[in-house]
Amino acid sequence: MLTGKTALVTGSTSGIGLGIAKALAAQGANIVLNGFGDVDGPKAEVAALGVKVAYHGADMSKPADIEDMMKFAAAEFGQVDILVNNAGIQHGAKIEDFPVEKWDAILAINLSSAFHATRLALPAMQAANGGKGWGRIINVASVHGLVASAQKSAYVAAKHGVIGLTKVTALENATTGVTCNAICPGWVLTPLVQKQVDARAAAGGVSIETATQQLLGEKEPSMQFTTPEELGALAVFLCSPAGNNVRGVAWNMDGGWTAQ
């Protein structure tokens, strides 16, 4: 379905980003990965799906790095047809105790990076398909883009901002073939969330299993994690012809979290 297209997925060396990259690759899209940590493993996982894969190690807090990454992707594959803004970091603290440098980093990586990648990707998407445009921008927001939790001021502010950016991007391109939507996961068992589970277990003197059930029980009525594979399948739908008129949506996949 996506053969000949190129997808750039930020923060895609693990977790949600890698799951989405693999789902798009399974539909034939060439992939540009980005992120920290192990690179060879994720590249091999994507390449095994029979597509071309490249990697760029842009620091998503730095606009110049993002610009270099977008130029790299265009040089490798012609242009970015699908942009998935997924890179994110987290820190928890009360507002009065929140480290200023952590606030700045979270806003830069979770929100500003999506703006910079989007502004750089849009011209080629708008010019595609003989000037009619074709492109898909998928912003991985969060259930925290819709509702709040205590001690997550920067993360919640950034993710609310991502949904606002999504809506504006969708409206500005509403008469073209370029769509923009946000995916809002609840708890997904990524390394980021595993750290929260581990911290809860240590603080409460309970097992990892008990801490996991406590975490889910507080917020997610389904009592189960959303998987990167499920989020990848949603991204594939948004990139399909069936998603042509899905525009500016914040689509939660949250086990009933925001239905309460």
User: What is the domain total for the residues?
Assistant: 2
The tally of beta strands, per DSSP, is 7
Second-tier CATH architecture of the largest domain: 3-Layer(aba) Sandwich
Proportion of beta-strand residues: 5-15%
Measured on Cα atoms, how large is the radius of gyration? 18 Å
Q: Mind telling me the CATH superfamily name of the largest domain?
A: NAD(P)-binding Rossmann-like Domain
> Strand count, sense and closure of the main sheet?
7 strands, parallel
Q: DSSP helix count?
A: 8
Would you identify the regions where 5 or more consecutive residues have pLDDT less than 50? none
Helix content: 40-55%
Main sheet: strand order: 3-2-1-4-5-6-7
Distance from first to last alpha carbon: 37 Å
Structure, described:
The protein has 260 residues and is of the alpha/beta class. It has two domains: 6-186 and 227-253, NAD(P)-binding Rossmann-like Domain (Rossmann fold, 3-Layer(aba) Sandwich); 189-225. Helices cover 47% and strands 13% of the residues. The chain has helices at 15-26, 40-47, 63-77, 100-127, 153-172, 191-204, 208-219, 228-239; strands at residues 6-9, 30-33, 53-55, 82-85, 135-140, 178-185, 250-253. A seven-stranded parallel β-sheet has the order 3-2-1-4-5-6-7, with helices on both faces. Strand 2, helix 2 and strand 3 (53-55) form a beta-alpha-beta unit. Helix 1 (15-26) runs parallel beside helix 2, helix 3 (63-77) runs parallel beside helix 4 and helix 4 packs parallel to helix 5. The chain is globular, with a radius of gyration of 18 Å.
